[in-house]
Design goal:
By secondary structure, the chain is mainly beta. It has strands at 3-7, 10-13, 18-25, 32-39, 46-52, 58-60, 68-73, 78-83, 92-100, 109-110, 114-119. β4 (32-39) and β5 form a beta hairpin.
């Protein structure tokens, strides 16, 4: 059974940085995509960034491109989201998700989320 555990959230001032971690377990992820999503209060969940476990593909939402960086550490089975130049509008619960790479755009497995709060 795939398990995803997020950590690294917290309270930070605008302009600051946080690094989120997503620890993955339960199988080999060599043919998987790992995504980060976020959901702010009263809003729908939105895509933030994605990486293929092989490391050959990354993509970012326009709202975070240039400020956030997604990466992975294969020996630690962990995906990171480095968030710099944080803005109050980045405040949300951040989730990581995983799925085999296929034509299906969705994700099969989700973590419980970690809260990120950016104060102005």
């Amino acid at each position: 059974q795939v398990q995803l555990v997020e950590s690294g959230g917290g309270l930070v001032q605008a302009g600051g940085s946080l690094r989120l971690s997503c620890a993955a377990s339960g199988r080999t992820f060599s043919n998987y995509k790992i995504g980060w999503f976020r959901q702010a209060p009263g809003k729908e969940r939105e895509f933030v960034a994605r990486i293929n476990w092989r490391g050959d593909y990354t993509i970012y939402a326009d709202s975070v491109r240039g400020r956030f960086t997604i990466s992975r550490d294969i020996p630690k089975n962990t995906v990171f989201l480095q968030m710099n130049s944080l803005k109050p509008e980045d405040t949300a619960v951040y989730y990581c998700a995983a799925s085999p790479i296929s034509q299906h755009p969705g994700y099969d497995y989700w973590g419980q989320g970690t809260q990120v709060t950016v104060s102005s």
